[in-house]
Amino acid sequence: MDPKPQDHQSPSSTPSELRQVLVLRPPPVFAVHEQDFSSKFHILKAYDSPLPTHDFLQAHAQSVKAVLCSGIGPITAEVIHNLPALELVVTASTGVNHIDMAECRRRGITVTNTGDVFSDDVADAAVGLLIDVMRRITSGDRFVRSGRWATSGEYTLGSKLACKRVGIVGLGNIGSRVATRLKAMGCLVSYTSRQEKHTTPFTFYPNILQLAFNSDALVICCALTNETRHIINNKVMMALGKKGIIVNIARGAIINEVELVKCLVEGEIGGAGLDVFENEPNVPKELFELDNVVLLPHRTAFTQESFYNAAQILIGNLEAFFTNKPLLTLVANEF
Amino acid sequence: MQGAYAINKLKQDSSHKEKMADDLPNVLLLGTPSVFKAYEREFSEKYHFLKPGESSIPLHQFLSTHAGSVKAAFCSASSRVTTDVLQSLPELRFIMNSSVGVDHIDLHECKRRGVKVANAGPIFSEDVADAAVGLLIDVLRRISAANRFVKAELWHQNGDYQLGHKLGGKRVGIVGMGSIGLDVAKRLNAFGCIISYTSRNEKPHVKFPFCPNIQELAAKSEILVICCALTDQTRHMIDKSVVLALGRDGIIVNIARGAIINEKDLVECLLQQEIAGVGLDVFENEPDVPEELLELDNVVMTPHHAVMTDESLRDVYELVVRNLDAFFSNKPLMFEVTRV
Asked: pLDDT digits over B128-187, tens only?
């Protein structure tokens, strides 16, 4: 039962027409749990309108105070200019790279994200991708499905995880969880980060090049910022070496994708597990034929449990905003 | 870490003397151990291998003709060391098995004849445990299926959001708490899983809850990881009733031996959606895999390669050499199999 904008009656004390939440493009979490949102808030669906976004905002969103977004519907400076009453951006993601944070700060607009609700799942999948590439699980599955096991029997050896040096790029909520899992598997964990974390037992390297030089694998767990864009480049991959593995569950643009493809195709690194790409859903076709590359469609956060928890956080933040209570997962705006 | 410990011990203990070709001890090679293929040159510098596999005459004839005085054999899981085979080897006193599993060796007959058997001990445990965890995450999070989806260029189509399942908090039942089972338990514990196990006997040094039988374990678990040996008791232990007890959301990972699971029952349960998914490194009749599995997206299959890493193969090579040397110089063996 899809509530129409004019008809909807909210069960809460504040009429839902006043609890307007703009959605430019539906985040996956919103799409799966839409009923829960619609029963509490008046959702303005720009994506359902025949009007171009700019026109829709001009016509319908001039008094909107809150917007719910994710990476597929960026909150650019232009969008913000078209929302003169905007006070809150709620993103259904951990990352905020799709939001013009400088403009938000200038306008005094608050931003909330999903906190660490996805961190466990993303960390599990990051480790799963690393095991997959090193131990050739997807590759083995392909080998069996193709019928070659019965006919040729030959198979390439994988690489042991224990005692391998794994460098974690960014030791935040996700990176620290990846670290503890890999430690339990006998890996030697080190990291680089904006600042050294003195409470962790892992070895710190002050820059990515040194980390790569001293690692057998890199797991990218940091945010995408101006500083981290293309931080993984040809030089870093050469330092990692021909047997080196890269796992990226963070943001595609942290890696120079053109250089990554070249290194993989030419065998300058040993393999990659990638959940994210510079220009999703476009994936470089050269990667499709490579046996040592595993590709996911940006879904390491996609579990039923995480989606439910994320929906609660999004709804919780919106409720808090509309009832003047403290927000749950405020993102500190350092811009 | 057991692998590293074993390596260090081997390096301390072993002393390889160079021998003239004539003086090389005879070792019978049964089957095709992967480690033999990988290190054939090194092996052949130390021992003279009798290779029935390279002869055109039948095995028994080869053995009676050429192996009557052989004292040591090096075998893999691909060759059955039966009563008949043992009877053709009256002087045999030692079998070095390259795998952990010894279900292909007639241990009763070996004991009766005073033939010592050694296996790979805990050398593969870490690698096998890592592979088990990798298979489990793959099934739970649909990694291989998603990889196929991307490479088939289907990502452009916005479809339903194929949600996977969280690993943390899941109740995992480990079947068999030997060194592999324990390594799996430690890893999944670090991922936030709730671990229980069943085993022939309760293990006092293991802190996880013990279940006296497989039915009970399945009933209280969402995931089963099979880590036990294949014996008469465990053959087809995982059957339809166990799968039904596990439930429709259940997942099974098998890195032990295919025949521990009733494969026909498993396929039926998968087709009827009585189980959510499986990760299998082993099958009842390798390298044959039930055709029905090839069509399923919730199944991940690897070609019995959970032990196959460069490092493990090197570790096994060093163990085999260590044990053959020890046997020929009357020194104690590592990882002797004492249960029958």
From this structure: 999 999 999 999 999 999 999 999 999 887 666 689 999 999 999 999 999 999 999 999
For the stretch A100-141, pLDDT in tens is 999 999 999 999 999 999 999 999 999 999 999 999 999 999
Q: Which of B156, B192, B300 sits opposite A281 (nearest CB)?
A: B156
Q: How far does chain B reach from its first CA to its final CA, in angstroms?
A: 27
Task: Write the ipTM.
Answer: 0.90
Q: B189-209: per-residue pLDDT in tens?
A: 999 999 999 999 999 999 999
* A128 to B138: CB separation less than 8 angstroms, yes or no: yes
Q: Report how far residue B271's alpha carbon sits from residue A235's, in angstroms, rounded to the nearest whole number.
A: 49
Q: If you compute the radius of gyration of chain B from its CA atoms, what whole number of angstroms results? A: 22
In this complex, is the C-beta atom of A155 within 8 Å of any C-beta atom belonging to chain B?
Answer: yes
- Kindly list the residues from chain B whose CB atom is less than 8 angstroms away from the CB atom of residue A72: none
Structure letter (DSSP) for residue B152: T
Query: Structural domain boundaries of chain A?
Result: 15-117+304-322, 119-295
- Specify the pTM: 0.90
The tens digit of pLDDT for each residue in A224-244 reads 999 999 999 999 999 999 999
What distances in angstroms separate CA B303 from CA A51, A148, B228, B307, one per listed residue?
54, 10, 19, 11
Residue range A15-117+304-322 forms a domain whose CATH class is alpha beta
| A47/B contact by beta carbon, under 8 A | no
Closest to A66 in 3D by CA, of A36, A23, A33, A99: A23
Distance CA B36, CA A110 (A): 65
- At the topology level of CATH, where does A119-295 sit? Rossmann fold (3.40.50)
